[in-house]
Write a structure and sequence with these properties.
Layout: H1 9-48, E1 54-68, E2 72-84, E3 91-103, E4 106-107, E5 112-114, E6 117-119, E7 124-137, H2 142-152, E8 154-169, E9 172-173, E10 177-188, E11 198-200, E12 207-209
Antiparallel strand pairs: 1-2, 1-11, 2-7, 3-4, 3-5, 3-6, 3-8, 8-9, 8-10, 10-12
Keywords: Membrane, Transmembrane, Transmembrane helix
Main location: membrane
Protein name: Late embryogenesis abundant protein LEA-2 subgroup domain-containing protein
Length: about 210
């Protein structure tokens, strides 16, 4: 006659306690692993200290800037930018870049996309964009502001680049970060609005925010 072993509630409670302890140990082990991994990534990031890309405006040509109808602007602008990656160990992916021109806080061209590209360590790239605006509404003060610039003898345009970038360290690629670039083009202005090329080749540095 065989004996049937029936565990008491006390024995079951002990087993449950062991399972609970095992779960806690696994939880703490995974937490320690992920904490160590994140700390390692942060230390590498701080050691490399990626610097934001540098932009400078090489050339700006205005082919058209004229009013038609009531406060409707037609514009045609060609620009060349120099983009540089100052980092020695960090590459940069440029995504979803959009360029437009503004005058006295008013956008005077539509957004023009730039093709995405990768920039290696300390590499430089020339970027060109054709900016146009056909019948864009502008504020009634547009003529007044242009008249003031004609009196001063110079026209100041703001060229803006907005988009996203990603950092690349080895095979690791970061998430996307927003980038905003602002450049000023200053050019001589005569007594009438330009209908032909009006050029600025000052090579001015741009401000970049990431």
């Amino acid at each position: 006659m065989s004996l049937v072993s029936i565990e008491s509630p006390k024995h079951c409670a002990k087993k449950g306690l062991n399972v609970h302890k095992l779960s806690k140990k696994l939880f703490f082990a995974f937490s320690a692993f992920f904490t160590t991994l994140l700390s390692l990534i942060l230390i590498i990031w701080l050691i490399l200290r990626p610097s934001k890309p540098e932009f400078s405006l090489k050339e700006t040509d205005i082919y058209q800037l004229s009013l038609s109808g009531t406060n409707l602007l037609n514009s045609s602008i060609q620009l060349t930018l120099l983009s540089k990656n100052p980092n020695q160990k960090v590459g940069i992916y440029y995504d979803e870049l959009q360029v437009y021109a503004a005058y006295k806080g008013q956008q005077i061209t539509v957004d023009s996309p730039l093709p995405p590209f990768y920039q290696g360590h300390q590499d430089s790239n020339l970027l060109t964009a054709s900016l146009v605006g056909a019948g864009l509404p502008v504020a009634p003060s547009f003529n007044y502001e242009v008249g003031r610039d004609q009196t001063a003898g110079k026209l100041v345009l703001n060229l803006r680049v907005n988009g996203r970038i990603r950092w690349k360290v080895g095979s690791w690629v970061s998430g996307r970060y927003r980038i905003n670039v602002s450049c000023l083009a200053v050019m001589a202005l005569g007594s009438t609005l330009p209908t032909g090329p009006l050029r600025s080749t000052q090579g001015t540095a741009c401000s970049t925010a990431v």
